[in-house]
Amino acid sequence: MPLLGNIFLADCSPQTAELHLVEISPSRNFAQLDRPPFILIFRSAPEVLLVSGSYALRSDGFGPDLIDIIQIASPAAGTPGHYYQAVFN
User: Fold this and answer.
1) Which of 9, 33, 67, 77 is 20 to 30 A removed from 16 (C-alpha atoms)?
2) How many Cβ atoms sit within 10 Å of the Cβ of residue 54?
């Protein structure tokens, strides 16, 4: 998982937001797709809150690419901040 742990920059206004890729999880491949589906979990700093939507994300060796994210509940023992997921089917 070469991008796990990377910081992604989300193009936002008025400034770019940093998202840390904290988890990559496989998802069930009910449709028997050629590429198995997966879920990415990102975390932003507590003072950064993004609304659910599409963001151009880029990181070392990735993007920019338009990614849809939605806010999810923070894990009970997780690092403080806001958590988001992107689902790739």
Assistant:
1) 77
2) 10
Distance CA 20, CA 9 (A): 9
Tokens for 53, please give them: 């939507």
- 85 CB-contact burial (10 Å; exposed 0-12 / middle 13-18 / buried 19+): middle
* Distances, alpha carbon 4 to alpha carbons 15, 20, 31, in Å: 24, 8, 26
pTM of the model: 0.88
Among residues 7, 77, 5, the alpha carbon closest in space to that of 48 is found at 7
pLDDT 10s digits, 27-60: 877 667 677 889 999 999 999 999 999 999 999 9
Measured in residues, the chain has a length of 89
> Pairing relation of β-strands 62-72 and 17-26?
unpaired
